[in-house]
Amino acid sequence: MAAETSTEVPKTGRQFVLKEEVIVERKWLKLEETTYTDPFGKPRTWESVKRTGNKKGVSADGVAVIAVLQRTLHYDCVVLVKQFRPPINGYCLEFPAGLIEENETAESAALRELEEETGYKGEVVECTPALCLDPGLSNSTTHIVSIIINGDDAENTRPKQKLGEF
Fold first, then answer.
1. In what helix (H) or strand (E) does residue 24 lie, and over which residues does it extend?
2. Which one-letter DSSP state was computed for residue 100?
3. With CB atoms 3.0 to 4.6 Å apart as the test, which of 29, 38, 68, 122 could cross-link to 149 if both were Cys?
4. Residue 48 pairs with which residues in a beta bridge?
5. For residue 163, how many C-alpha atoms fall within 13 Å in the half-sphere facing its CB?
6. Distance (Å, rounded) from C-alpha 65 to C-alpha 147?
7. Cα–Cα distance for residue pair 154/165, rounded to 1 Å
8. pLDDT of the residue at 7
9. What is the Cα Rg of the chain in Å?
10. pTM of this prediction?
11. Mean of the per-residue pLDDT values for the chain?
12. Is 111 helix (H, G, I), strand (E, B) or coil?
């Protein structure tokens, strides 16, 4: 069977959202159905996940930390954490990451998350603008923060996680 080809030419009009309807909302997330116009001006629907709550003084939802552990006479190492993730019923190796708290900077959140999840303390080298990493599914935004850890510092020789309640 030959594939059908469309002879319809997209309108030059801009695509836009017509309406958003919350399907279900919980503590951290909500599922929405969005009605929007496609390039031909035809209404379409899309399901998406959004974070609940609007924090004041926050530039993005969260941070992901690319931390490099540097020690004398050793290779530099990228620090990862192993976490169980219920949606996949398994473990993942991930960059330390977490949500930015109200009135917290991305840099402060990254240092806090790094210490909570790994016990390491470091120095911020760079912070990206807010990025949307999965825009086909969610409107969640993240700063990617680069941190250098001096592994020769006494506080970083035997790091211990400081996990709290999430």
1. strand 17-25
2. P
3. 122
4. 32
5. 8
6. 7
7. 27
8. 63
9. 21
10. 0.86
11. 92
12. helix
Compute the Cα dihedral for 102, 108, 109, 113 and give only its sign: negative
Question: Can you tell me whether residue 155 is helix, strand or coil?
Answer: helix
CA neighbours closer than 13 Å in the CB half-sphere of residue 23: 12
CA 165 from chain centre, in angstroms, equals: 19
Supply the DSSP symbol for 74: S
* Strand 62-70, strand 97-99: pairing: antiparallel
What's phi and psi for 140, nearest 5 deg? Answer: -60, 140
Q: Is 117 in a helix, a strand, or coil?
A: helix
Rounded to whole angstroms, the Cα distance separating 148 from 78 reads 10
Q: What percent of the chain has pLDDT over 70?
A: 92
For residue 50, count CB atoms less than 10 angstroms from its CB and return exposed for 0-12, middle for 13-18, buried for 19 or more. Answer: middle
- Which among 118, 126, 129, 125 is positioned nearest to 151, based on CA atoms? 118
Q: Which amino acid makes up residue 155?
A: E
